[in-house]
Design a protein that fits this description.
heterodimer, A: about 300 residues, mainly alpha, MetI-like fold, B: about 350 residues, OB fold (Dihydrolipoamide Acetyltransferase, E2P), 2 domains, six-stranded mixed sheet, five-stranded antiparallel sheet, 8 helices, 20 strands, elongated, binds adenosine-5'-diphosphate, binds magnesium ion
Chain lengths: ~300, ~350
């Protein structure tokens, strides 16, 4: 019997290994494999049609792919920075509140509780050019008499999507930064006051270094999220019109399921993953540097 | 040049009043120590002087200005905190120079001041380390260095030595005293340790429950405690207290002990009055092991419970009139537990307190 020869510790973790393999490793390997084939969902037999790196070459040469890639980076940069500054401001305000802070913190988390699909529909309605809340409000106030094409114009659509994303996720930053603010020891801040700091200088020289690790944790988490963004954009504009708001994963989703070119979609997916990996590594490096700065790590 | 004056200072936290209208005058260059048991309002008082805590009533004057509503940065004070409160993300050099950098002094001046402070406190070897890589004593010195680079009008210390071990504490005590000699500045120093208070202070201010009980030079408060609290708080070992009653030209204690009335108190006490007799271990010693006594004395026989030899002297724990009391033996010899000795009590050094008010009758 073979299993008699297996060491006991291995037998004990074997079920875990099998389950992990089944739910993570196998799909991963399958998608990696399929990215080297001309696999189309409509023709299952193409799964065995090995075409080497053709899909990858096609992706790297594709203007549409790089446009989506660039747009994703732009989206990520703008959204993360906005969320960071707004979250920081929000956290600073909430940390000053003495009465009802608990309730405020709970309210702050509401947007996080919504599914992105729901948020997408909500803002799709709000920014709708005919029946949308924004245009209605602008028109009733007499600020505008035309229907502003919020989700149609390239810049406005990008703005609307970023707005929705920021609305949904600023609180991630706010909550993590708030945790950071609570963890700051009181003493150095008082020492800074005695050393002559104005409130701004205290913030700049004492508070900020202390919350930097928390900002970078939030950045790392959110950059992964945004690099994989799909649902909000899918719902609000479906990457359109005419690819004006196409980002990586709407492009990949469309290629895989609408055009049914699964192999090509998977190849693009694997290239895109580098983006997420790059940002994650970058922010973790920053996080570690900030912790070293505070003497929390070496 | 800066004096510090506290006029009827009150501090409330909500409905709770923790400092009750205290008055204190600190002269320029004076080293004043606020001492008292923990929770008596020392830190609160110090933090009000620093501007870290708002003032609920009264007036604080530093130099010639009422500073009640000035933020800490406009008071020209430095503070050394109990937990050092160093900036963990800055090197020792940056910690020391931070206040000058904030004040926008130019770099050469900052370097000069930082070097000077590092020499005074022998920090030269650690200038590029961060606080995390320093020992407790070194951190303590950085905290003091950070306070002195600015040449403030007033130094505030909040229990700066309480996180150090006994040996280091004794060493730093001397350094603080030297520091005060070197940089002539007003110092207000908070501690719960009466030894620190006695050794450092020009003037000791004893606080209890948000009130100032007594202030004076270390010898004054040691020799003439205003009440039984000060008598037991200041001095180590604490003053012995024997409750008793005034009889006809004598003091009666439980167990039939009778002592003459100390001469200073003869005209003050009334027969029938409940009193507490106070005397220090230094003034009750076995016959043959005592210092010369000038005035009256009384002979008492007591059996020694436990003895603590300390080298040049031995502490003797004994019972008198139902109270545990401490006596001292100079030129010590070995004392057996339970051995009965004859002691001499120096009546001229005794204090009498009123049993009801606990105040010194002198
Ligand atoms: N922020 C606060 N809120 C309420 N009570 C406080 C606060 N800070 C201190 N106290 C109370 O004030 C009293 C004096 O405290 P403190 O000045 O820190 O004493 P200490 O003499 O030990 O330094 C204590 O009874 C303490 O419980
Ligand atoms: Mg205290």
């Amino acid at each position: 019997m073979i299993y008699k020869k297996l060491p006991q510790w291995f037998l004990l973790i074997l079920p875990a290994i099998i389950i992990l393999a089944a739910v993570i490793l196998i799909p991963l390997l399958f998608s990696l494999y399929s990215s080297f084939t001309s696999y189309r969902l409509t023709r299952p037999d193409t799964l065995f049609n090995w075409i080497g790196t053709f899909n990858y070459e096609k992706a790297v040469k594709s203007g549409v792919f790089w446009a989506a890639f660039g747009r994703t980076i732009l989206f990520l940069t703008i959204a993360l920075n906005l969320e960071m500054f707004l979250g920081l401001g929000l956290a600073l305000l909430v940390s000053r509140v003495t009465r009802g802070q608990r309730m405020l913190r709970t309210i702050m988390m509401f947007p996080m509780m919504f599914s992105p699909v729901l948020v997408g529909f909500q803002f799709k309605f709000i920014f709708n050019d005919n029946v949308g809340l924004v245009n209605n409000a602008l028109q009733s106030l007499g600020l505008s008499n035309s229907a502003i094409p919020w989700l149609v114009d390239e810049k406005l659509a990008m703005f609307s999507i970023i707005f929705a994303e920021v609305w949904m996720s600023t609180s991630v930053f706010a909550i993590l930064i708030l945790a950071g603010l609570f963890s700051i020891p009181q003493d150095p801040q008082e020492a800074a006051k005695v050393d002559g700091c104005t409130p701004w200088q205290s913030f700049r020289h004492i508070t900020l270094p202390f919350i930097m690790p928390f900002i970078f944790i939030a950045m790392a988490i959110r950059s992964l999220d945004v690099a994989r963004a799909y649902d909000i954009v899918q719902v609000m504009t479906n990457g359109g019109p005419a690819r004006r708001t196409e980002i990586l994963w709407t492009l990949i989703g469309r290629t895989g399921y609408v055009d049914a070119k699964m192999g090509y979609a998977n190849a693009m997916g694997y290239v895109s993953i580098f983006l997420a990996i790059f940002f994650t590594i970058y922010f973790f490096k920053k996080l570690n540097a900030a912790r070293v700065e505070l003497g929390m790590a070496r | 040049m800066a004096q510090v004056i506290l006029k009827n200072i009150v501090k409330n936290y909500g409905k709770l009043e923790v400092v009750h209208s205290i008055n204190l005058d600190v002269a320029h260059n004076e080293f004043v120590v606020l001492v008292g048991p923990s929770g008596c309002g020392k830190s609160t008082t110090l933090r009000m002087i620093a501007g870290l805590e708002s003032i609920s009533g009264g007036e604080i004057i530093i130099g010639d200005n009422v500073v009640n509503n000035l933020p800490p940065r406009d008071r020209n004070i430095s503070m050394v905190f109990q937990n050092y409160a160093l900036y963990p993300h800055m090197t020792v050099r940056e910690n020391l120079g931070f206040s000058l950098k904030i004040a926008k002094r130019d770099q050469t001046e900052i370097d000069k001041s930082v070097d000077e402070a590092s020499k005074i406190l022998s920090l030269e070897d650690y200038m590029d380390r961060k606080p995390g890589a320093l020992s407790g004593g070194q951190r303590q010195r950085v905290a003091m260095g950070r306070a002195i680079v600015r040449h403030p009008d007033v130094f505030l210390f909040d229990e700066p030595l309480s996180n150090l071990d006994a040996k280091l504490r004794a060493q730093m005590r001397v350094e603080i005293k030297k520091l005060h000699q070197k940089i002539q500045t007003t110092i207000i120093y908070v501690t719960h340790d009466q030894v620190e208070a006695m050794t450092l202070a020009d003037r000791i201010v004893i606080m209890r429950d948000g009130n100032i009980e007594q202030q004076g030079s270390p010898t004054q408060v040691f020799e003439n405690p205003i009440n039984t609290f000060v008598a037991t708080f200041i001095g180590s070992p604490p003053m012995n207290l024997l409750p008793g009653r005034v009889g006809k030209n004598m003091l009666e204690f439980s167990g039939g002990l009778i002592l003459p009335i100390p001469i200073d108190f003869k005209d003050i006490v009334k027969p029938g009055q409940d009193i507490i007799l106070g005397f220090r271990a230094d003034h009750i010693m076995p016959v043959g092991h005592d210092l010369t006594i000038d005035g009256d004395s009384a002979m008492i026989e007591m059996s020694v419970g436990v003895s603590e030899p300390l080298g040049t002297e031995t502490l003797l724990y004994t019972q008198l009139a139902g109270q545990e009391i401490l006596a001292k033996m100079l030129r010590p010899r070995i004392v057996q537990d339970g051995e009965t000795l004859t002691f001499n009590l120096d009546l001229g050094q005794c204090n009498l307190f009123d049993a009801v008010t606990q105040r010194n009758l002198r």
